[in-house]
Amino acid sequence: MNPFKFRNPTELLFGEGMIEMLPKRIPQGSKILLTFGGGSVKSNGVYDDVCRQLKEFDCVEFWGIEPNPKVETLRKAIELGKREGINFVLAVGGGSVLDASKLIANAIPSERDAWDLVLKGADRSVVTLPLGTVLTIPATGSEMNRGAVISSIKTQEKFGFWGEYPLFSILEPRYTFSLPAYQVACGIADSFVHVMEQYICRAGESPLMDRWAEGIMLTLIEQREAIQREPADYDARANFMLSATMALNGFIAMGITEDWATHRIGHELTALTGLTHGHTLVIVLPALLRVLGHGSKRAKLLHYAQRVWGITSGSEDECIDQAIDRTEAFFRSLGLETRLGERGIGPEVEAEIVRRFAERGTLLGENQDIDSAVVARILQVAR
Ligand code: NZQ
Ligand code: ZN
Questions:
Q1: Measured from the CB, is residue 179 less than 6 Å from ligand 1?
Q2: Domain check: are 214 and 228 in the same one?
Q3: CA 370 to centroid of ligand 2, rounded, Å
Q4: Closest ligand 1 atom to 183 CA
Q5: Which of 275, 282, 280 is nearest to 331 (CA)?
Q6: How many angstroms separate the alpha carbon of residue 297 from the centre of ligand 2?
Q7: Helical H segments across 230-343, by residue range
């Protein structure tokens, strides 16, 4: 087990009726910037629920944060926040709204440009504004981590940003009932791959982390059908929501080495084609496992084959291949295509991704052994 530091200060307020805790969690006298996406919260009643709780507060609304939030949009929110003297940010929406709000909360008190914060890191010379969240889509874990992913229209790039943890996050499974089936599928995929990025790495680092990770994956596999079949199945949605949070809040990463190559390649796919985040991952991960599965990831894949898919017969190579096939089949059972060609993504996109990694000299993976040539092989296998 590697040495590690662990801290997660976010208070989770989970379940029916928790929205009523909202006014008690925001300091009296706060001037709140409410941040939203494209409007789903208006049609499913979440907006009304939030407004009902905030009657006593001075609020300013910012609408129009798009999926894969664009810095060009966020600059407008930051300008509004500065002009209005905002001192609290409340994000109401999915991972995109939450991520955007982490950047907004750091940028309002800062003099630096928002894209500069993304490229060079948050402004630590200022006090980042406190952030609360009301989550409407289980997927990213953004409600309980300090990560964010921000895009630029101008440069067609998408990069990570480290902000602050939300002070609190309200997770009300009923708010997810209105999700389109495609977003549910992408959310399950994203959560599953978050676990894989922290699990299919080096074998034997922590049996406890292994079992926690397997618990999340097995729960998602077991609950998938119920989550997808009946949007209003409260328990299935609650299990999904908690699984997604636990998949990326640091709890399964203690003392282990992480990968994240699938995400880095997936971000490029989104940046260049607009494909939804979770969908990029189910295309990249099986291909990445096929390229590395018999090498550096061999021992952990064998462990995964047995523990998650119950594969015990056949040679080691056969067990590994079966585990990868079962993983891809699971993604396809979500209703998602798992090959670049099926989404009309051609060699010119592959070439641009490889060019970017080569130019940046990026090395990915738990062993830092995935260079641009390996990325090229992964994309070829994903065709
Ligand atoms: O914009 P609105 O109208 O709200 O519609 C959204 C959006 O179109 C809709 N939606 C959300 N909740 C809904 C709903 N529609 C109906 N009913 C509801 N309850 O869903 C669409 C997608 O929303 P979005 O917020 O983009 O989805 P998600 O939560 O998957 O977030 C994706 C973003 O998070 C980043 C991704 O890269 C991407 O930019 N990630 C953030 C991470 C983090 N902070 O740790 C880690 C992840 O790996 C990921 O990279
Ligand atoms: Zn993700």
A1: yes
A2: yes
A3: 19
A4: 20
A5: 282
A6: 20
A7: 234-247, 261-273, 277-292, 298-309, 316-333
Contact 94, 52 (CB under 8 A): no
Question: Residue 37 corresponds to which tokens in the numbers above?
Answer: 């996406």
Closest ligand to Cα 99: 1
| CATH code of residue 327 | 1.20.1090.10
Q: What is the pLDDT of residue 199?
A: 98
- Do 202 and 138 lie in one domain? The reply is no
At position 234, the amino acid (one-letter code) is Y
Q: Based on the fold, state whether residues 210 and 237 are members of the same structural domain.
A: yes
- Domain identity same for 22 and 101: yes
Question: What is the domain range of residue 151?
Answer: 11-175
Q: Specify the pLDDT at position 296.
A: 95
Of 140, 175, 210, which marks where a domain is finished? 175
CATH of residue 128's domain is: 3.40.50.1970
Same domain, 71 and 185: no
Do 141 and 191 share a domain, yes or no? no
| Interval between CA 376 and ligand 2 midpoint (Å) | 21
The answer to whether 94 and 139 have CB atoms below 8 angstroms apart is: yes
Q: What pLDDT is attached to residue 20?
A: 98
Q: How many domains does the chain have?
A: 2
Q: Residues 119, 120, 122, 125: is their CA dihedral positive or negative?
A: negative
Sign of the dihedral defined by the CA atoms of residues 91, 136, 163, 185, in that order: negative
Q: Are 172 and 229 in contact (CB under 8 A)?
A: no
Mean pLDDT per 10-residue segment, the chain (383 residues)? 97 98 96 98 98 97 98 98 98 98 98 98 98 98 98 97 98 98 98 98 97 98 98 98 98 98 98 98 98 97 98 97 98 98 98 98 96 98 98
AA letter at 102: K
Looking only at the bridges linking them, the beta strands covering 147-152 and 157-162 are antiparallel
The Cα 197–Cα 259 span in angstroms is 5
Nearest to 166 by CA among 147, 144, 136: 144
In angstroms, the CA 7 to CA 348 distance is 42
Contact 183 CB / ligand 1 (< 6 Å): yes
Domain boundary among 141, 175, 209: 175
Strand partners, 132: 90, 168
Across the beta sheet with 88-93, what order do the strands follow? 11-14, 168-171, 131-135, 88-93, 31-35, 58-62
Rounded Cα distance, 240 and 210, in Å: 19
